[in-house]
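Morning!

As promised:
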Amino acid sequence: MSENKTQADKIEISNLKKQFGTNQVLTGFNLSIREGESLCLIGTSGCGKSVALKCLIGLVSADSGSVKVDGHETIGQSRAENEALLRRFGMTFQFGALFDSLPIWENVTFRLRQKEKLSKKIAREIAGDIINQLGLAPHVLDLFPAELSGGMQKRAAIARAIADKPEILLFDEPTSGLDPITSGVINDLILNSVNRLGATTLTISHDMASVRQIADTVAMIHQGQIIWSGPVADMHDTGIAEVDQFVNGNAYGPLTLNPPDNNVAQHSEMPV
Amino acid sequence: MIGFVQSLGASVLALSRMIGGIVLFAAIALRWVLVPPFYGRQIVRQMVDIGYYSLPVVGLTTLFSGMVLALQSYTGFARFSAENTVATVVVLSITRELGPVLAGLMVAGRVGASIAAEIGTMRVTDQIDALDTLSTRPMQYLVGPRIIAGIVCLPILVLIGDIIGVFGGYLVGVYNLDFNASVYLSKTLEFLEFEDVFIGLVKAAIFGFIITLMGCYHGYYSGRGAEGVGKATTNAVVSASILILIANYTVTALFFG
């Protein structure tokens, strides 16, 4: 990633290591993302993509290494500093992670209401504007997550992530489980939202069509470290067997299925 | 032999780790209970869930316990002509022991399971991580309100349960065992002291803390998938029930021993 490293690096991750039990998930993870860049992180299931993402925002504590946002080290910072950092991020999770007990308008404006104590009327208006931009009908505001289809849940999750106009957006498999048309719609919404906000974006995806549509740069993680990164146009001819196998979706090649879920132990960390 | 020692050692270590984890979790939870912001809506919602919706099950349990206590004690005491102590036995048994313990165990089954399942599901669907990314501490938003609601609601539930249980004894005493109503009531109040009721309510507050803490702890550390949430739910109910019985003996020994 050194070729990407400039003064304008928004995020700079160096030699990040994380181990759960005996399973070394990140073995020296390096990644730089420039301001305003859209980077897609690809890799086989269980290779540590989500762990890297969670280490980036402090949801999982890294064992060692460095994570800098705008040049400021975030590893080892206090809880208050981490909260201030998190306010600059918007994130969607693989399965939406919308709060089951809250209607969509409260989900979308959750952070705004915590921060600014908005009245219900104003919060609903803001939520209505945002979901309208994402192509959801106004009646969705009063529905609960369980009443929405997978695609609608993904849109609502994106609405929640962008509601506070974050500088950095993180998308964890935003199109997983969706049909190709809905995936295309979600990709368009991500692109539009990112362009409107001018945000720096890190997306985890297995969906190569998505990657081609939304990424400026692609990085591939294998065995806990980045083995290739470069412009999206170059990903089909990298000369690296693992990357070519993954991008072309070949069953046979150097990549084999990873051991089961490496995230098993990550919830053993004590809350603070 | 070495295998047995190894497995024994592993079990002891796992138990020690769990106890340490629970104590640490409780300390962190109590710290965040006292620090703003306080999520008033969450607290009210939990009070309704834990308190209001537990009323029927606590009411029915204490009603029938009071009734059967009157019947059984009458049968036993009649053998040595002590029938007139039935009302006193019912009220003291209900307020000092049966009310708090039965209410605690019933609420542990209903509420402890529900809390563990809800928080466990939030854990496995990344909703707890989502709270963090939305600048909200899960311990303050999820755990704090449940603990406050448990500590506040259990004594209220037990007080109502005490009244219903004593009323159950009264119903059996007056309409089945032919006690004079005013005599039964005067015997009920004659030996009842403030301390009997108060210690029961103190126990209830402790049980409320135990139930919500166990539900939150096991839910927070739930394993993955439906099986993980199922285990968390079972562990929450079993551990809360055992701790309630231990705490009940400890408080009784401290105040009445």
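Chain B has a mean pLDDT of 93.

Hope this helps with the figure draft.
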